[in-house]
């Protein structure tokens, strides 16, 4: 298997952080061409810092980290400090990263990379609001057909919403961007709440990471100790949903996941249901499928993969 070239577009976030660690721990399957940061869980000044902290925790200060958009395409930013803490990465003791932030804007990096690499050889992995990806597609429509695949975390059908009763956070923050991406014609795989709410950070799963007895294992367990408290209180669940690592795990071991090719459209008008992913799971319209919408995963296999790979760092 040759490693798949990816750009990870992210707003760390503890679950984004685990996704980054999983990708950096899996060089046989994944080559990280760059990490582009976006405003989302916390403002851009923090997400770009957090991405660099995670690269340093992984022992990979050589990875290129870029700052992209500091706001959605046409709305004020909504953040999620109540979930992720003031820093976005609350839990472990944080340090000031010393690796540089790249001078180039993240949106320009996405455009330039897709134009430079052979067509169909770069996968985009958005783990936050889709502002950077949509801005790149708007500025350079020629890159859309050069994308191999977009594997993203966002949306919900059976779980409906987490930030409003009708919408999932990443889509809600920038629904116009999500609309542009979903209508782009690119090959898209979506990890909605329907699957990520089955990937729970139970106590034994967090303890398995802590028991790696490495700095990465401790750092990760401390992030997840903090991260899970919000959803446990909200849902009364056994742990927090580890959303974003589903994207990276899918690239490494797609057989852990199952879903359906369906049509998904984004609500951009209604105040009540803004950012809703209207997913035709039951095939009740004749709208053409534009997405592989994942619905289920092997949760034990998923956490075993994460623990085994993070042990390599
Ligand atoms: C998504 O929103 C963020 O809070 C998480 O990092 C994840 O990407 C889940 O709705
Ligand atoms: Ca995220």
What can you tell me about this protein's structure?
- Helix 1 (14-24) runs parallel beside helix 11, helix 4 packs across helix 5 and helix 9 (203-210) packs antiparallel against helix 10 (215-235).
- The chain has helices at residues 14-24, 44-57, 81-84, 106-116, 131-139, 169-173, 175-182, 193-196, 203-210, 215-235, 245-252, 299-310; strands spanning 4-10, 30-37, 65-67, 122-126, 147-153, 188-191, 257-262, 264-266, 277-279, 291-297.
- The strands form two sheets. An eight-stranded mixed beta sheet has the order 3-2-1-4-5-6-10-7, with helices on both faces.
- It has twelve helices and ten strands.
- The site of calcium ion has 7 residues, from loops.
Query: CATH class, anyone?
Result: Alpha Beta
β-strand number: 10
Regions with little confidence, pLDDT below 50 for 5+ residues: none
- Based on secondary structure, the structural category is alpha/beta
Query: Could you state the CATH homologous superfamily?
Result: Ribonucleoside hydrolase-like
Name the hetero compounds present. beta-D-ribofuranose, calcium ion
Predict the CATH topology.
Inosine-uridine Nucleoside N-ribohydrolase, Chain A
Our count of domains comes out at: 1
* Main β-sheet, spatial strand arrangement: 3-2-1-4-5-6-10-7
- CA-CA gap between termini: 21 Å
Shape estimate: globular
- Averaged pLDDT: 97
Q: How would you sum up the major sheet?
A: 8 strands, mixed
Radius of gyration: 18 Å
The CATH architecture assignment turns out to be: Alpha-Beta Complex
Q: Name the beta content range.
A: 15-25%
């Amino acid at each position: 298997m040759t490693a798949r070239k990816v750009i990870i577009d992210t707003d760390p976030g503890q679950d984004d952080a685990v996704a980054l660690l999983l990708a950096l721990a899996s060089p046989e399957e994944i080559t990280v061409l760059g990490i582009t940061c976006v405003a989302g869980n916390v403002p851009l000044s923090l997400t770009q810092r957090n991405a660099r902290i995670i690269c340093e925790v992984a022992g990979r200060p050589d990875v290129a980290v870029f700052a992209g958009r500091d706001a959605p395409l046409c709305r004020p930013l909504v953040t999620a400090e109540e979930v992720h803490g003031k820093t976005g990465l609350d839990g472990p003791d944080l340090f000031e990263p010393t690796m540089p932030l790249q001078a180039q804007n993240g949106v320009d990096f996405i455009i330039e990379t897709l134009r430079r690499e052979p067509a169909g050889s770069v996968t985009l992995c958005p783990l936050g609001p889709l502002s950077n990806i949509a801005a790149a597609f708007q500025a350079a429509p020629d890159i859309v057909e050069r994308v191999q695949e977009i594997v993203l975390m966002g949306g919900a059908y059976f779980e409906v919403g987490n930030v409003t009763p009708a919408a999932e956070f990443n889509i809600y923050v920038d629904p116009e961007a999500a609309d542009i991406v979903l209508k782009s014609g690119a090959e898209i795989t979506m990890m909605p709440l329907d699957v990520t709410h089955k990937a729970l950070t139970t106590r034994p799963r967090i303890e398995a990471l802590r028991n790696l007895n490495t700095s990465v294992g401790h750092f990760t367990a401390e992030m997840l100790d903090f991260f899970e408290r919000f959803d446990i209180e909200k849902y009364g669940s056994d742990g927090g949903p580890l959303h974003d690592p589903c994207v990276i795990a899918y690239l490494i071991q797609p057989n852990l996941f199952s879903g359906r090719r369906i049509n998904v459209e984004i609500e951009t008008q209604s105040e009540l249901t803004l950012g809703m992913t209207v997913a035709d799971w039951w095939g009740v319209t004749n709208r053409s499928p534009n997405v592989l919408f994942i619905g289920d995963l092997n949760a034990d296999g998923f956490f075993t993969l994460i623990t085994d790979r993070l042990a390599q760092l």
